[in-house]
Design goal:
This protein has 774 residues and is mostly beta strands. It is built from 9 helices and 37 strands. The N terminus is likely disordered.
């Protein structure tokens, strides 16, 4: 109750002023906000809002609808593992960029919502207040999430769909960058399916002003929720910075047809501070801190079996950075030191069930009425991560040779505890162990070297064609330590994981880029897999310290094209997975030896993680933007993937949690000179009836609608139905300091959900925001 009162007070204060990036706060040319991850240099803006070419950059084809939330931004300068810059068009990888304008127009309630129209990103939601991207068939910890290039993944992230991406405040961001495919050479462990780098707002230049500020208010009808925030900015020339915060309340979600989603209300709070200092001579420093929290986020995908959970999550990230920009062999140098603290409190209650395992009182269980409860557990896990990295970039041979090198290390220290209460006295009693052994530690470290060179070059200042080849290698190591692991005692293990990449591309006349890329990825087994003991969602897991890293080899072939008012991007890929970690059933006599009782297991299947499978994933993804013609443009994207896994006995089955064929497309009109835009678009997904054995046991996919809590027979489960939503949005910027955006989502009020989701998506929803700066 105290936290809700605190939230109400904060919301009341911040409702007067809400976070909006100051118009004058756009980054300077050449300023980068990412690191080891993808980083982008923004192009300067002229007075009428049209991008202005940096001096010396070749004039290319016209830029169609670059502010469209789904335009292919091939002229945006992106950096993959390099702190200087490379245009998306010139890259030999599949990359999506969601810029600040797109974020404002999408009006996302959370960070996962901001990715719903990105090519090939499937936004799975087990519960409200959560969201886990599935990229190229990989979910959860198999995708790496960065904030300003600092890794957010830690050693306790669950391996299924997770909610941690939702802890990033989308209104604190300058842009979001998504690299599809392995990125372990640049980023290390976890970068198998892809990499998401959230780039925070950069303190901007305000001309003759020293002080400035901005505010924003927002509303969503599907949740009857809203909130806002504020930001104060300072610019004294060599010193710039901002301080801001947000507060949001989300009521009970209304799905299509008016169906209410139980326990879908939650709260979100956030704060941010960022300072930069220009030291002269190409040197600059940055200090930043971000705090975000989600409170009272319920999860009911197992409500039918009498199991309900709520989550309170808190995330604090702070870093200090030193940059040096130059030319030649010292084009860029960056040193970064970070501190990251995550805390998760999960409350799990179990309700009375019938002999068939179905909850007796569904409504009472969701409300946690004591008369329906038989057991309550609470687990608190805190991870403190100390990290550091250094990266260097140089150029030679008249800028035809580019070399990058770097090293990084992250150290996790885990505090974990648990307590339980049972019917009768309901007095809390401490458990002997939380989810993890208290005092566990985990280290991941590595170093990389990468280079590319133009073997053919049709000129130095205005090349007609270029043939470029490149390669990279990382040497990575990780280790874990945990005491008093049930059934194992003290656990100590370490592994070494080298990875390699190679690529080639041919670019002709700023018109077409044809490329081929080979990239290796890996994910080291984390503490959640090797030492956890307890309920991890749909199963009860027991520890196993003998796990090897998952390995991935991906070949991608693609093309990008500019031609007058047409932009086109298409890629096909194949990924071979080895040493895949899968859940293997554990007989009752084995888990009894761990001291577990049937009441503790709660009727869940008991599994142990083992390297017992391999797999192959293949897919095609692409997008097109046509226009603009007098402000009118068309856009579309789509992605298809298919996957299979093979167990140790050679039996092949469909891979689990594979998204269906999906995409989006629309038509947009924009009149920047009048501050107007309007867009009509469709999001859609086909049915997914190609299910793995694990999918067939997942209540989120195969629950009997007539008997909640029970699974349909395997031959009766048809998977997730296909769906579409018709949507519209519009906006108007007035007085050069105020913006109003509105969106009508799911206009036809369809009842639908994303594959593997435990909650339905919003029904008809009116979202609106108004923002201003001074």
């Amino acid at each position: 109750m105290g936290r809700r009162v605190a939230f109400t007070i904060c919301a009341a204060v911040l409702a007067v002023m809400s976070p909006e990036w100051v118009a004058a706060g756009e980054p300077e040319v050449g300023e980068v906000a990412g690191d080891e991850g993808v980083m982008i240099e923004q192009e300067p803006q002229t007075g009428d809002g049209e991008p202005e070419r940096p001096s010396g950059e070749l004039l290319g084809p016209p830029k169609p609808a670059e502010n469209s939330p789904s335009a292919i931004e091939l002229d945006t300068t992106v950096i993959v593992g390099s702190p200087s810059g490379q245009r998306v068009f010139e890259m030999g990888r599949s990359v999506d960029v969601i810029n600040r304008t797109s974020l404002e127009r999408r009006l996302p309630e959370s960070m996962p919502d901001a990715l719903t129209s990105a090519t090939g990103v499937h936004s799975q939601k087990t519960n409200a207040g959560a969201g886990s991207p599935i990229i190229r068939g990989m979910v959860g910890v198999d995708n790496l999430v960065l904030l300003d290039g600092v890794r957010l993944n830690n050693s306790t992230f669950r391996t299924g769909p997770v909610q941690y991406l939702a802890l990033i405040d989308p209104w604190s961001l300058q842009r979001v960058e998504v690299v599809r495919g392995p990125g372990s050479v640049w980023y290390g462990s976890d970068a198998i399916g892809g990499v998401i780098n959230a780039v925070s707002l950069s303190p901007g230049t305000m001309g003759e002003r020293v002080w400035g500020g901005s505010a924003r208010l927002a509303f969503q009808s599907a949740t009857l929720g809203g909130g806002g925030g504020a930001q104060a900015d300072v610019d004294s020339g060599w010193f710039r910075g901002y301080l801001g915060g947000t507060a949001q309340g989300h009521g009970e979600l209304r799905a299509g047809g008016g169906e209410k989603q139980l326990l879908s209300d939650y709260y979100r709070l956030g704060g941010r501070l960022k300072l930069t200092q220009d030291l002269g001579g190409g040197w600059a420093t940055t200090q930043a801190a971000f705090w975000n929290a989600i409170e009272d986020a319920g999860r009911i995908d197992s409500l039918g079996t009498g199991r309900v959970r709520t989550y309170d999550n808190e995330d604090i990230l702070a870093y200090t950075r030193l940059d040096r920009k130059g030319s030649g062999w010292l084009k860029q140098l960056r040193l970064n030191f970070s501190y990251h603290r995550t805390k998760e409190v999960m409350t799990d209650w179990r309700c009375a069930t019938t002999d068939a395992g179905v909850v007796v009182d569904r409504t009472g269980c969701a409300a946690a009425l004591q008369s329906t409860l038989k057991r309550r557990e609470e687990y608190s896990d805190t991870v403190q991560t100390f990290g550091a990295f250094a990266i260097w970039e140089g150029e030679a041979l008249e800028n035809r040779l580019h070399i990058n090198a770097g090293a990084d290390a992250y150290f996790d220290f885990v505090a974990s505890e648990g307590r339980e209460a049972t019917a009768g006295s309901w007095a809390w009693a401490n458990k002997e162990r939380g989810n993890y052994s208290d005092g566990s530690s985990y280290t991941t470290a590595g170093a990389f070297l990468a280079a590319d060179v133009d073997l053919l070059h049709g000129g130095y200042t205005a090349p007609l064609y270029r043939w470029n080849v490149g390669a990279g290698v990382r040497l990575a190591a990780f280790s874990a330590s945990a005491d008093d692991v049930p059934g194992l005692g003290s656990v100590e293990y370490s592994h070494f994981a080298p990875v390699f990449s190679a690529n080639t591309k041919f670019i002709w006349n700023e018109f077409i880029n044809i490329y081929a890329d080979f990239s290796q990825g890996f994910r080291a087994a984390n503490l959640q897999e090797s030492t956890v003991l307890g309920n991890t969602g749909k199963s009860f897991d027991v520890p196993n310290a003998d796990l090897e890293p998952i390995k991935a080899n991906t070949i991608e072939v693609g093309a990008k094209m500019h031609h007058r008012n047409v932009r086109f991007s298409l890629a096909g890929f194949g990924t071979w997975l080895d040493d895949v970690i899968v859940r293997m059933p554990v007989p009752a006599e084995q888990w009894n030896q761990l001291g577990l009782s049937e009441e503790e297991v709660g009727g869940l299947p008991v599994f142990r993680r083992e390297n017992q499978a391999s797999g192959f994933l293949k897919g095609v993804e692409g997008g097109v933007t046509v226009g603009d013609w007098n402000g009118l443009s068309l856009w579309a994207n789509a992605a298809w993937i298919k996957g299979d896994t093979e167990d140790a006995d050679g039996n092949s089955t469909p891979a689990g949690r594979i998204p269906p064929l999906m995409g989006a497309g629309g038509i947009m009109w924009e009149a920047p000179q009048h501050g107007l835009f309007a867009e009509l678009f469709v999001r859609w997904a086909g049915a997914q009836d190609r299910l793995s054995p694990e999918d067939l046991k997942d209540l989120r996919i195969c629950e009997d609608p007539n008997n909640p809590g029970l699974l349909l027979p395997a031959d009766k489960c048809s998977g997730t139905e296909g769906w579409y939503t018709l949507n519209a949005r519009a906006g108007y910027a007035f007085w050069q300091t105020m913006k109003f955006n509105i969106a009508l989502e799911n206009i036809t009020d369809n009842l639908y959900k994303y594959h593997v989701s435990g909650i339905y998506a919003p029904g008809f929803n009116v979202a609106a925001s108004i923002s201003g700066s001074y």
